[in-house]
Fold this sequence. Notes:
Structural class of chain A: alpha+beta
Oligomer: heterodimer
Largest sheet of chain A: 6 strands, mixed
CATH class of the largest domain in chain B: Alpha Beta
Distance between the termini of chain B: 27 Å
Number of domains of chain A: 2
Mean pLDDT of chain A: 87
Strand order of the largest sheet of chain B: 2-1-3-4-5
Shape of chain A: globular
Amino acid sequence: MQWLRRAALGASFLVFLGQAPALAQSTDVSWAPGAVTAEVTAGGTGFVEVELSAETALIGALLEVSPSLRSFAGAAPANLGDLGAGETRTVTLGFGTLWDDLPSESFTVTGTLRVLADSGGSPVALLQELPITLTVVPLPPDPGEAGKATLEGIDSDGDGLRDDIQRYIAFTFANSPSVRAAAAAYAKKVQETFFVGNDRVKAVNLAADVQRTRHCFDFLFGGQTVEDLLRSHRATGALLAEVLNTEIRSRSYLAYDAQLAGGVYPVLPESEWKKGCSFDPDALPN
Amino acid sequence: MQRASIAALALAGLISFGGGANAQQPLDPQLFCGKRSVVVFGNGVLTTQDSATKSLDVVRRAIRVSLPPEEFDLLNFESDAVYNPTNGPLLDLLEAYLQDIATDTREYWLILARIVPAPLGFEDIITDIISAAALAASPIQENHVEFYRSSIRQGKKVILVAHSQGNFFGNLSYDALTPDERQSFGIVSAANPDSFVAGGGPHTTLHEDFVIEAIDAAKFLALQPRPQASNFTNGVNTDPLGHSFLDAYMEGPGSRARIIGHVLGTLDGLVQPGEEEEDGVITVFAGLGSAVRAIFFEPPLSPGGSPVETPAGSSVSVACEDLREGNYAYQMILNGIPEPLPRVVYVIEAGDKVASGIYQFGEGDIFPPDAPDGPAFDVEVTGNQEDGFRFEVLSAPNTP
Lengths: 286, 400
């Protein structure tokens, strides 16, 4: 599998880095926690926050994920800028998988997050790297007709998203963990509309959440032209159709929608769409 | 004039603090002086709220890509979807789908979103449902009218992009506005099933819009006024019915450019509310007479600076473009020790807040003579030019 090839390449690259001359002193930065162990479902995403403390002042600090992990992990902010001695920053690590990493069995990949800082005009890697161990588990099985028997459907891994939708998103948006995360957030909000009942205030508030998550998707998938945005809207339209795939789900959604009639709904400008993401898209591999 | 009516209240010795948001209404009626216009989308039937907001997203982007960035920034408009009732037709179509096609409703939603074509015969059902809605009377949407009014009161022009059935609602809303309000409210029509656009706004109906064609036939038979004539073509559309706002009117570059041109042209032709009046967003009126003078304090021009202090007469106003965050104060000072001590009638308007009353100078205002420590009316302003400002009247001394 390609992920194994990547891991092998990454491992050899790490050995090469170990021999690289440009290394700073050993007490340059520290991490809390000192190592990260994470698990992500294929097609899903995960986030972990870590604290980076600079023991000495750093100029133009950048974060770099080791090659073995680059298909699976990203870090944000990637550019930390200057840090004073003793200064601490929060870094978000995001995990996700690409299409050719969708496994039939669990696998583990290891690597590091390290800091590059300016030293006399050239970047040097600081010694204290953050070890990362990531386990990728397979997608939940297709629930088939059993997944259509109830309003809520089947969510075997308890991630808040129906298994059939999780699989649809994994296969439809296979090449972008960030788009998948946005699609999952939108689908979860649409699922919530089934349970609004006759609460108009709840419906109105949820409509704002649905729009916010859709705008995150459009931010990542909606490009710059009108045609790009129409394409993005068709993608969420198709996802909506998957979520509303039974009579009772469709009726529940229409009951929610009926409560929105007569209202006025502000639409955010594109400059605000990124704020609709409940996660940091920059922390994911792409 | 609003001022005259408020002054009358003041003379009657009343104090009022106006405003108050409707919790159900996303519009914030307490924000002033931010955006200068609102582009609104009013949907037709067979449209969910999610789809209505998508339509407005596309209108917004189409405006953005049609203008150089600096011109788009200058427009500085907000956008809101007014969601017209459409659930009956959506349910009717679902029933028809369940009866005629399948129990797996995924395709129903794909058809609605024009992602897959409707099966044979189902397009006729869609057309019949939209036609039936067009023949029925549309109820006025009070919330929408109030939203248009609030926006105009806040100094914004309002452009309603109305699609299909949304034209009926738009025309009704126009009728409910006052003649002054109508000068700042324009409708840009797409796929109009009505026989006119209120206010004489422009319309675009595609020759290949088979739904409007069907409505035309139905209205003819029902002896109702027929829809405006079709007047444009894209040739081929993604939507076989040629009626969808996104997949026919916005997908087609020709009709899209035409509609966006109508939006920009209409926007240009509307009156900016409040521009014809001299009043600012903060106004103070006080019947000072010869016994009292006043000083007006404005927030510092730069952070850490001193308040800007200017002698003031009986009336002061601050225009939107001059507004900045901070405290504004109108302070009255006695000229010497007048006999008898004067009473001053005053009215303060700050955005949606109004304070009015009568102040009777007392012994406590006399000493030390001429010192600037008389009663002050304080208005706190928070916000910025981009998003708008909020107002609070912090102090309005009054004599019962």
